Amino acid sequence: MARVKRGFKARRRRNRILKRAQGFFGSRSRLFKVAHCAVLHAWKDAYVGRKLRKRDMRRLWITRIGAAARNNGTSYSRLMGDLRKADVMLDRKILADLAVSEPQAFAAVIEFSKAGR
Description:
Number of helices: 5
Largest sheet: none
Distance between the termini: 85 Å
CATH topology: c-terminal domain of poly(a) binding protein
Shape: rod-shaped
Radius of gyration: 26 Å
CATH class: Mainly Alpha
Structural class: mainly alpha
């Protein structure tokens, strides 16, 4: 029986991992065994990071809405409660964008929510 060296398939598999390890420091970008571990850890951290980014952005939006609400004479919790009672379907991302880019429109939303009390 002939000896099988798996030349093409193994090289393609190694090159695929080494390509994803480009930019890593030292042997983490050059040696397959070390690069393979580094790439797997990087993928794990990227997966977790995608979940954390959503959490961080929500915290940022809440902070921005709260600051803008205090500038307009109300609190974050009172504003969100009033918006829910007034059936205003604006999410936190849109409210935070309004608070930063268009303060007059945000103030109008607050006045509308107060009227629905």
